[in-house]
């Protein structure tokens, strides 16, 4: 099985933290899917400067007129279970083969998306911030991909719908934090 990464999982260092095996950039297979677009609305409670806030992270949402780039990462069952801890507020969905725009990719593809309204941020929500560190994880990863891949991220990395917050953060849920940090 493969996981579709569309946010921090496009970054090798970030993805590596959830795997007990060594990943290389070749393990992050660039792939384009149709029928989804990226949105800033996935909420996780995070600790920021000893204060708990709502961290707003990337999500994908169905949109018949959109196509997005991301990466496919082959995972074993135990790795999938670990990723479920990291992506605890996300639901697992299958990406249909008709939505995969790479005719050479012929495997089961799943993604983690936030579908529960309890974990969806809405414009104007108080105490909700996009961590600058998270944005930088994505921007740093883009150097490893082609121009079309980079352009596909350009729009989502400007005109942010929530206030940005600089500094270190940890996930408030200790199991999620452990899965995200690899400790």
What secondary-structure arrangement, pairings included, does this model have?
Blueprint (H helix, E strand, L loop, with lengths): L1 E4 L6 H5 L12 E20 L2 E24 L2 H10 L4 E5 L13 E5 L14 E4 H11 L4 H8 L8 E3 L3 E3 L2 H8 L2
Parallel strand pairs: 1-5, 3-6, 6-7
Antiparallel strand pairs: 1-3, 2-3, 2-8, 4-5
Helix pairs in contact: 2-5
Could you explain the architecture of this structure?
- With 183 residues, the protein is of the alpha/beta class.
- It has five helices and eight strands, in the order E-H-E-E-H-E-E-E-H-H-E-E-H.
- Strands 1, 2, 3, 4, 5, 6, 7 and 8 form an eight-stranded mixed sheet that branches.
- Helix 2 crosses helix 5 (174-181).
- The longest helix has 11 residues, at 132-142.
- It is globular.
- The two termini are 24 Å apart.
